[in-house]
Amino acid sequence: MSVLLALALAATVTRADLTDPSLSADPADLIEFTRVEDAAKFGWDALPGAVLSTVAEGKIGSHGLRADAGAEPQEYMGIGLRHEIDLTGAGPGDRIVLFVEQNFGSGLAINLRTAEGHAYRFFDVKQGQWTRVELDLDLASWSQDEGAQFDAWGPVEYLHIYSKGFDAAGEYMLLDGFAVFVGGEPVLVRP
Ligand SMILES: [Ca+2]
To answer: What is the pTM for the complete model shown?
Structure first.
């Protein structure tokens, strides 16, 4: 990536940070729970080895989610959402938006599980500060499991946001403002 492009992207991230009008419609943010029990009821959970909690330091709304390494950390810790998100018809220009902060590494992965297999991709984040991430749903930008190639999105049953490097005591990940837009509209809103 050229320096100029990197600077342009950094500027975009800063400007869009808290002012994305599509996210000011609060229900599009699928992370807004004061109690972790309610987040769990919606489908949020920590991946094995980590412990989920809610935090009053959201980037959108007032609360976010936090995963801390637990007593027995494992590789590939992170946060998962087990709640159907129907991406049927999604394509270029449609997007997943999220805010993340973590104190390990500089990259994360997202994995979407559909009935036809997994689609996943990696993205860069800054360590120790919130990063706004926007992932286009153009399937050409996503990798798939070998033998499970599909050419159109369908309902996503389960998603993970994780890192191989999230594997040690004292490490954490904060997540907020997770929203999915197809045709400019949120695919799913909180109840
Ligand atoms: Ca929130």
So the answer is: 0.86
